Amino acid sequence: MDNSYQPSYEEAPSRSCLFRAVGLFTGDMHLCKEWVKRQLVVIQLLDWILRGVAQVMFVNNPVSGLLITAGLFLQNPWWALNGLLGTFVSTVSAMLLGLNREAISAGLYGYNGTLVGILMAVFSAKGSWYWWLLMPNMFMSMLCPVVSSALSSVAIKWDLPIFTLPFNILVCLHVAATGANHPYFPEVDIQPNDHLHPTNDSKESLNFSQLFLSVPVGVGQVYGCDSPWTGGLILLALLLSSPTICFHAMWGSAAGMLSGFALAAPHKDIYSGLWGYNSALSCIAIGGVFYVITWQTHLLALICALFSTYMTAAISKLMSVLALPACTWPFCLSTLIFLLISSEIPVICRLPLSVVSYPEENRRYQRQLKASEMVQHSQQRNSQEEATLKENGRPNVQLAVDRGRSEPV
Questions:
Q1: 168 pLDDT band (50/70/90 cuts)?
Q2: Closest CA to 222 of 163, 260, 274, 162
Q3: By percentage, how much of the chain surpasses pLDDT 90?
Q4: Rounded to an integer, what distance in angstroms lies between the CA atom of residue 272 and that of residue 283?
């Protein structure tokens, strides 16, 4: 007698319902987006703000944005408040300018405002709860859709994204305009990096627990946060939306951490995740978001992450001479270079910006596109064969008719 367990007919629908319920909160939550379109403007704006917070990590999911926001409040409520204010002002400014409504609803005009708000609070020398900082925060966040639209009109010629270039431009503009000695909005004093590498301790002095935590901390440093709990919540938010994005975030942060050791970076900078956030973003962008995920593009994402780390070392030195932060300039420059690759290998397929989604959906789109191309190709081949048969059949019929006429009755 077979005593193996077999699920009953009542349990199978319950499992399918469970999977469907979980599926409602994964990916880009398309059903939620359609439901929000029929709601009040306040609910729509809340959805757009949460999606904008998550779009910093290439995620279009309001629940992920909510988890990331919780992580920001866990790190520093003042930073989180500035980030939400920047997202709100940037999104509303895009609406008033009449920019693309689909892009606004996806959070694409909000994420630069998120970073502008947070990093202006991080670089402020006045510390937390300096309320006057909200004024330049709102002004710079208001400029985010203006700069984004201007850069997009140029980048669209090559079908390239603008990434966080507006954030880099506006934050560096604010820091350069104020500086460390400003009476109202002083910034932290950024000293030039020494060209001589600091002498690190021996291998025995490595703190392996901090080394392990530097991976989630590097992911959290995308938002300027150095708490491992915040980094863990961000990784959980990425896992909810796309396991591929979550894996590449950890993979890129780990690659940046190891490259920091190879470049003899100070251990404290490695532990604080400053060598992981640019490489994490680069690895996500190449590893499934703008390229269809294959093992070749996965390897390409790792190479881009390592290249981004070298770019971080170089740009940090150059920017520190001007007393400016490196921000995410290394990520933007290195990833744009890798997106301009003109490869004839079919497995390295860069998607048009109009169809870019999360990696699993990008993979599904490519399979459907290949299937439709195969169907069209088979239809064309069948039509050509039918045309060839007709052309070849006409002389035979005519020959049979002529033979019939020539035979004696």
A1: very high
A2: 274
A3: 71
A4: 19
Amino acid (one-letter) located at 337? I
Q: Which of 186, 29, 170 lies closest to 93 in space, CA to CA?
A: 170
In angstroms, what is the C-alpha Rg of the chain? 27
Exposed/middle/buried for residue 14 (C-beta within 10 Å: 0-12, 13-18, 19+): exposed
SS3 call for 187: strand
For residues 133 and 126, is the Cβ–Cβ distance under 8 A? yes
The predicted-structure confidence for 49-76, as pLDDT tens digits, reads as follows 999 999 999 999 999 999 999 999 999 9
How many residues are given for the chain? 409
* Domains, the chain: 25-189 (1.10.3430.10), 212-386 (1.10.3430.10)
The count of other CB atoms within 10 Å of the CB of residue 199 is: 7
Reported as a single tens digit per residue, the pLDDT across 114-155 is: 999 999 999 999 999 999 999 999 999 999 999 999 999 999
| φ/ψ (deg, to 5) at 37 | -60, -25
Residue 99 identity: L
- Residue written as token pair 């961000």: 234
| Contacts for 143 with CB less than 8 Å, ≥ 6 apart | 166, 170
Q: Name the β-bridge partners of 41.
A: none
Distant-in-sequence, close-in-space partners of 206: CB < 8 Å, separation ≥ 6: 267
**Is residue 200's pLDDT more than 80?**
no
Residue 350 backbone dihedrals phi, psi, to 5 degrees: -90, 130
**What number of helices (H) and strands (E) belong to the chain?**
17, 0
Closest CA to 112 of 56, 158, 153: 56
DSSP 8-class letter at 197: P
Percentages (nearest 5) of helix, strand, coil residues in the chain: 70, 0, 30
Asked if the model's pLDDT at residue 224 lies above 70, the reply is yes
CA–CA separation, 300 vs 311, rounded Å?
Answer: 16
What is the rounded distance in angstroms from the CA atom of residue 373 to the CA atom of residue 16? 32
**CB crowding 124-151: b at 16 or more within 10 Å, else e:** beeeeeeeebbebbbebbbbbbbbbbeb
Q: What is the DSSP string of 20-59?
A: HHHHTTSTT-HHHHHHHTTS-HHHHHHHHHHHHHHGGGT-
Dihedral pair phi/psi, residue 110, rounded to 5°: -115, -25
